Amino acid sequence: MNLHEYQAKDLLAGFGIPLPVGDVAQSSSAAQNVARRLPGERYVVKAQVHAGGRGRAGGVRIVTSVAEVRQAAEELLGQTLVTDQTGPEGRTVRAVYVEEAIDSERDIYVAVLVDRESGKLALLGARQGGEDIEERTAEKPATVQTFLLKPDGAPAKGTLDAFAKKIGLTGRLTAKAATLFEGLISAFLKNDASLIEINPLAVTAGNELVALDVKMVIDDNALFRHPEMKNFQDRDELDPVELKAQENEINFVRMDGNIGVVVNGAGLALATHDMLSDLGGVPANFMDIRTTATSLDIAAGFDLLLSNPNVSAVLVNVHGGGMQRCDTIAEGIGISMKRNDRLVPIVVRFAGNNADYGHTLLRNYGISYTVAQDMGDAVERAVTLVRPEAA
Question: Can you give the pTM of this predicted structure?
């Protein structure tokens, strides 16, 4: 779950991360009132959307009066902001964050995430931050320094100070940075985050560190441990198709292909995608049917496939077991097919718990489909179904 900047900053404030004073506003008058409460005479007005590159897209305004705060908020609120990360459709700005402007002598980059190669928690840092950090890192990977932590996130004494020096923080800033790193690591672990990124982390003329912008992502699978975050999800920012799937106990991501994919289990789904790709097939979606999904949930997921005009064939690759029985998935497919007029060719590979019964249910629903003997056979048949159309 992506957090808005203001939500992330509210969380990090409780872990001692130094932040500018600010507050969120949903109207220009509210933004003006926030500015009146802030110290200083310069303000920053930021569009709150789940995407990076806001500054380059005009979504961050630095102004010098309360009246200009109101004007900037009026211009941003309701605007469709298009950044490098939103795609051409952009995101509608429904809130702005107003905070005091901080003069930065130097901007650095700091992040905590899970390192995929090692499977460990990693602290990242770079001497120079900014919106172009990804481009610079792609050209020169050594731009970002990496420090792998123990499984519990507890660094050995002195190692955080050493890491601070690696990214050019010396003198009094070394200890301050180490304390900030400790707070970030603690926030990451206690909130079940998958990413916390501070970019930029400002170094002020008074040798203070201030987190000017924060990106934070929470692991969806851990949200049951955080009831306080129940209202953090911004439904307006979510893909309505993916949101519908989530409401029906299905992990779903839309893709650009023409083969609809129905799978139970994320690992099996990824393997299915790899096999399709190896044969030149292009999936129209990623689907992982959760263990808690009912046949009605599965029917709703299959409805999403049928509603996609790009889907020319559907591949059902299911291994019934502890996750989902084959007959439950067959019943969901049958329900969906009965209430939809659209017919597409379907390849079905059932294995494991109630596989035979699953086939019986599909036949009883009057569904015409191709039976596959194994995964390889299923993938090959699905790709063959769409190949004439692709040609």
Answer: 0.74
